Amino acid sequence: MARTKKTIEEKSIWDDARQMLRKAERDGVETAWDRLEHQTPHCNFCETGLSCRNCTMGPCRISKKAPLGVCGADADVVVARNFGRFVAGGSAGHSDHGRDCIEALHAVAHGLTQDYTIKDEAKLIRIANELGIATEGRQPLDIAKDLSAEFYANYGSLREELSFSCRVPEKRKQIWKDLGITPRGVDREIAEMMHRTHMGCDNDAANTMLHSARTCLGDGWAGSMIATEISDILFGTPSPRKSMVNLGVIKEDQVNILVHGHNPIVSEKIVEAVSDPELVALAKEKGATGINLAGLCCTGNELMMRQGIPLAGNHLMTELAIVTGAVELIVVDYQCIMPSLVTIGNCYHTKMVTTADKAKFTGAEHVKFEVHNGMAQAKKVVRMAIERFPLRNTNRVEIPQGPIEMITGFSNESLLAAMGGTLTPLVEAIKAGKVRGAVAIVGCNNPKYQQDHCNVNLTRELIKKDILVLVTGCVTSAAGKAGLLVPEAIEMAGPGLKEICGALGIPPVLHMGSCVDNARILQLAALLANELGVDISDLPLAGSSPEWYSEKAAAIGVYCVASGIYTHLGHPPNITGSSVVTNLALEGLDSLLGACFGIEPDPFKAAELIDQRIKVKRQGLGLKP
Ligand code: XCC
Ligand code: SF4
Fold this sequence. Notes:
Layout: H1 8-11, H2 15-27, H3 32-39, H4 44-47, E1 51-52, E2 60-61, H5 75-109, H6 121-130, H7 140-153, H8 170-179, H9 186-196, H10 205-235, E3 241-245, E4 255-260, H11 264-274, H12 277-285, E5 291-296, H13 297-307, E6 311-313, H14 318-323, E7 329-332, H15 340-347, E8 351-354, E9 365-366, H16 374-388, E10 404-408, H17 412-418, H18 424-431, E11 437-441, H19 453-464, E12 467-472, H20 475-481, H21 495-504, E13 509-513, H22 518-532, E14 541-545, H23 551-562, E15 566-569, H24 579-593, E16 597-599, H25 603-620
Parallel strand pairs: 4-5, 4-7, 5-6, 7-8, 8-9, 11-12, 11-14, 12-13, 14-15, 15-16
Antiparallel strand pairs: 1-2, 3-10
Helix pairs in contact: 5-7, 5-9, 5-10, 5-23, 6-7, 6-10, 9-10, 10-22, 10-23, 11-13, 11-16, 19-25
Bound molecules: FE(4)-NI(1)-S(4) cluster and iron/sulfur cluster (SF4).
């Protein structure tokens, strides 16, 4: 790929992004797009997965001229090992977030914190019952003690199966068993992946790839699922509510605080702190009319789902949000936070605050959040933001106008409630071909693409074909800004979807949460399969991550496929240097797992690809395509 200079229009489809890109140019601020330009062309060995740095006999680069590394590893082995480590990183991210949630639940249960409580007792009891934990006549905190112990055990090595394997359809479990990929413990599979990919261990590409599947299944059915379920228990199960999206949610006359990262343990406390009367009074004393909180990326998704807090934007909007010049403070926990935010913040008056010891940023101020001090720390952070308000240079403030309305909050619980407590209306709509299938569009932005072009157009094309779309993570902001997350969007849908969503009063594109909340979609798929007495792979479902960038997104893709859901990606991971690995991903997995990957950068062609797959699945169920 040659070095190309993109125009501002080519960088993003959005007016708010373009306006801030122009301002960034004027203000001399460098963004991810500029840095990408300096990084291209990329190294071909790295891009195809053919460089290995796993030992100091190397590094080795596999080519026609030198087809073997010093140890004798060939292209297939090197690519498979690199990919295995890549998705182990992603699984570790989601799952360590899950572990932090368990720690919070444990602390609440054992009375080690006053800062967090159980908000959704009914869900606590429901999950405990599901996992065989006694609930009759017991205090919620006692149940929570057992539940946190049960969840901790999912991370270790003493179990043969994960707790939530009880949700997995029998046929799927048998497939995992036959392939030897039943996930046992979250940490165990990740550690084993690191072991296998050490020099001189697993030197069979297909075998390494199967362990990738096992590792990612641990993420999907435990690490992520536990994160989601505990977050609901501690902060409430989401239900539909209105919110707003785009940079217009930043307010000129208020102290603006952005939360960025993933775990609601931090951001939920910030939500509480911003309405503290003392702090609001202080903000007014400093000349602001109030304190405004907005979210970015996945923690933004979490807050939006449960509290309706507006979303300033997705991954590629994080830098541009600061370019407004109106952000006093950005508080982060972990994952997907560009280190450049510190530098950009320094160009304005924006302070960056880190909260997790495992994610410090040089130049940012660290305010360590722990379960026992979350509230006090949150107030401290909000106070810091207020103190910065007088430092704002009003001459450098420019905020894009006109935030877009959207509906959020579609947990499985609220979806079921909308359908009168059963899946029957959805099943009937699928059988009748009014809803031909469902596709989860998830994941990120990547400056290699025009921002959100694929995310938005794929969503639009699918709903036209009467395919229900579920969005999570950074696709949420894309769909929201395109006006697809409101009931009126049924006008853009096909006739069947329009009828069904119209009757239920829901949008044709449903916001189901953050990236760990893809676990909600796994659960929904399993519920549907069980209802119909089939495997997940028999259902007219697909996943897609058009503009993905992260190790976590790759892990999601792998657990989707390993769960039986065909998954489209806009571009391949760094595996194309191996024909064995590539063929496995694009075809071979289909015969093993009943699902595989499809690669297509063009959203219109991708919609066709997915539609084809849905037709085949519908016919398999004896339904009209
Ligand atoms: Fe990150 Fe979760 Fe991707 Fe967005 S979607 S860029 S992984 S924030 Ni999770
Ligand atoms: Fe080279 Fe093998 Fe060492 Fe990798 S593990 S760097 S291929 S010698």
